[in-house]
Design a protein that fits this description.
2 helices; six-stranded antiparallel sheet; 310 residues; 4% helix; 13 strands
Length: 310
């Protein structure tokens, strides 16, 4: 291509007006291209620690580009307002560290000019700039811990009720990239330092006479006394079986006494003795005229009284 850059070993002959020729050789190195940063830099969530400290991880995900941190702006407005509203107006930002090394602040060593900030936002290029230790190294493929420390707060734990979304953070880099994570502003929550009384501290009503003092209806209900097991009902002695009723023998009907001058009736034909019930005797109907003498029946056997067996 036209005007293509020369690289590598290059030779040229110089011809002058007087006819002289001069050869020149030069080795032109291949230029190293500076990669364009992709600004793929990320922040983690805030992690809260004791002594009112909190930490966030800053990661360089660029595969080629190393750069440096030139400025940090930290928005802790919510924490400042919380301190003022809850009796901790002395709450302030004391220092920052970058991967464990001092980055900004440490005002405890001297005057506020040396490093600490009492008003949010904190800008390392404006607030106590002489304490700023940047630029801070930020190499590709690495993560760096940025830690903040507050003084003047209650107790020795983390800041009460604080959440990661309460803080905003902007970081400027030497390659022109920037990370910007805004805070989410919300209404302040009043913090009550005294322990909330547990329900056990709330006076409980004196116990009203419990059911144990009231005679319980009825106290152990008396179990029915063992009802005398009914004595064995005397089985009736064996009911005497009636002795078989003697089957009366077929009483031969009386033969009609022939009466002189009268035709006798035929005698009754005796019933078969198969059935136990005696057949009724046939009463002889006397022929007309009826004789004065009635035939006398033979003695009918009397049924004996039953005999009862024990």
């Amino acid at each position: 291509p036209r005007y293509a850059p020369l690289v590598g070993l290059t030779s040229a002959d110089l011809i002058f007006d007087d006819g002289c020729v001069k050869g020149v050789s030069v080795d032109i190195p291949t230029p190293t291209l500076t990669p364009t940063p992709n600004c793929d830099y990320t922040l983690s969530a805030f992690d809260f620690h004791n002594s009112h400290q909190q930490e966030i991880m800053v990661t360089n995900n660029d595969p080629w580009n190393d750069t440096k941190v030139t400025r940090i702006l930290f928005n802790w407005t919510y924490t400042q307002q919380w301190g003022e509203d809850n009796g901790w107006s002395e709450l302030h930002l004391d220092w920052m560290t970058w991967n464990g090394a001092d980055a900004w602040g440490w005002g405890d060593a001297g005057s506020p000019d040396w490093g600490e900030d009492w008003l949010s936002w904190t800008d390392t290029s404006v607030d106590s700039p002489s304490s700023w230790q940047g630029p801070l190294q930020f190499n590709h493929g690495n993560a760096y811990a940025l830690r903040f420390d507050f003084d003047g707060g209650p107790g020795g734990g983390s800041i009460p009720l604080a959440k990661g979304e309460d803080f905003g953070l902007i970081i400027d880099f030497e390659d022109g990239c920037q990370i910007n994570q805004p805070a989410i502003h919300k209404g302040l929550v009043t913090w009550t330092p005294t322990a909330t009384p547990l329900p056990s501290d709330t006076p409980t009503p004196t116990p009203t006479g419990t059911a144990t003092n009231t005679p319980q209806p009825p106290t152990a209900t008396p179990l029915p006394t063992n009802t005398g097991t009914p004595t064995e009902t005397l089985k009736p002695s064996k009911t005497p079986k009636k002795s078989p009723t003697p089957t009366p023998s077929n009483t031969p009907p009386p033969t009609a006494t022939p009466t002189t001058g009268f035709t006798p009736l035929s005698t009754s034909t005796p019933l078969p003795s198969a059935t136990g019930t005696p057949a009724p005797t046939h009463t002889l109907i006397p022929a007309t005229p009826t004789p004065n003498i009635s035939p006398t029946p033979s003695d009918t056997p009397v049924t004996p009284d039953p005999i009862w067996f024990d």
